[in-house]
Design brief:
Shape: globular
Radius of gyration: 16 Å
Helix content: 10-25%
Order of helices and strands: EEEHHEEEHEHEEE
Distance between the termini: 19 Å
Number of strands: 10
Largest sheet: 5 strands, antiparallel
Length: 167
């Protein structure tokens, strides 16, 4: 999703990104740590990288996820008709492969069986998560497996938010 909970800085030139041995953090114009917007700038980065790396790939960028999945609740579901699955990078940390949200499965057992060896290879474990765009798509009948994966941001929605590049 394209939104973040952090205020857009009017004087964006005064927002400084610090790389402290692979940990990114942001400082405002007064040199106070502020949210870096990893939730969900990292997801946008991942989607763009996949477009460059994969021969066949589609991406969707939803707006206003942070206030109730507004964009994904208005998306044209037919966009996904030729997709095998939907993978979202919008989870803190580096270990979660979210297959259920709010007690509801967002991917089939068959899909989970197929991806489990790959997830395990990269240190991911199946978990349950919180509201996000793939949940909205499932509720709207997207009809294919979805998942949300950890993508290396920490302390989202706070002034202490960081992004760990290796994760």
């Amino acid at each position: 999703h394209t939104d973040t909970v952090h205020a857009i800085h009017k004087d964006i030139d005064r927002l400084t990104i610090i790389d402290n041995k692979g940990v990114l953090l942001a400082l405002d114009g007064d040199s106070h740590q502020t949210g870096i917007g990893g939730d969900d700038k990292v997801g946008i980065y991942l989607a763009l990288r996949m477009l460059l790396r994969l021969r066949v790939c589609k991406v969707a960028f939803f707006y206003s996820e942070e206030i109730g999945c507004v964009g994904s609740n208005k998306a044209n579901i037919s966009f996904f008709k030729d997709c095998a699955f939907v993978l979202q990078g919008d989870r803190r940390g580096n270990k979660d492969f979210v297959t259920s949200i709010g007690g509801a499965e967002i991917s089939s057992k068959d899909f989970q069986t197929l991806v489990k060896p790959i997830a395990k290879q990269y240190g991911y474990k199946f978990s349950s998560g919180a509201m996000t765009d793939v949940e909205a798509l499932c509720k709207r009948g997207v009809g294919i497996a979805t998942a949300n994966v950890s993508c290396g941001y920490y302390d989202p929605h706070s002034s202490k938010e960081t992004v760990v590049i290796a994760d």
